[in-house]
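Consider the following input, taken from an annotated entry for DMT family transporter (Hymenobacter negativus).
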Amino acid sequence: MPNQFRVHAALFFVAVIYAANYSLSKDVMPVYMTPFGIVTLRVLGASSFFALIKYFIAPQDKIIGWADNRRSIICGVLGIGLNQLLFFSGLNLTSPISASLLQTIAPIVVVIASAILLSEKITLPRVLGIGVGAAGAASLILSRNAQAAIYPHATLGNLFILANATVFGLYLVLVQPLMRKYHAFTVLARVFLVGAVVAVPFGWREALHANYASFPLKIWLEIGYMVVFLTILAYLLNNWALKYASPALLGVYIYLQPVLAVLIAVSLGKDHLTWGKAGQAVLIFLGVWLVSQKPKAAPVAAVPEDAVID
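Applying the prediction step yields:
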């Protein structure tokens, strides 16, 4: 068991990595590179890295059987391909704070998908949470504020982010059986390979024809950040920390991401926090908290001392 400080440090670092991306990506898009071009560089870099690591760490581990192979393909399409295309398309059109808040809808999607796919029980608090969270998300998506001139297509961008959170929530439910059955790098190598097959056809032209000679050092560093930190390092730290962190602790750090994203976006002048967004954030966080409440276990009846157990 590692030092708990290391587990907290890993989860906090992952939260910072994700939070900073909302603002740093705005420097790159759309002036220097299109969203699909960024996705192409990211998935190609990550898929190559994970394939290489898998070759050395788990060369004999393979996903076998039609059911598991089909699941891995679906996970790659949802969790990597569509997830990345929708996320960067949405972030290109909306503000960093709006995008970070809508991302927290993913846990609600996980609960709904678990109820449908895994027959998990949905309690009244969870139903209320789904309703409250949906109300907060709808209010955020449809709201128009002083930044409408900066983000004229923010509503469409918010819808893309909501779709991104939805497919990522489905991915988290579907990938869990694979993570329990196979080595983590075996699963990551497969899903990123599938994701690359899905995403690259949309962005290879943009990635190939970008005017790289005009990129200042700052833009190169931010693109490198998205490939190395946002994809590779974040996945590595998350997979390591999840071996030792409780779901409750992980939830705390998931909720921390938009808070950090707000602080970073405001400090860099990329966005402004308004009372309206603060209220929408409260609704979304309340909804996620209600959904995260697990059903109480049914009480176990006491067995009489003279009872005979076969």
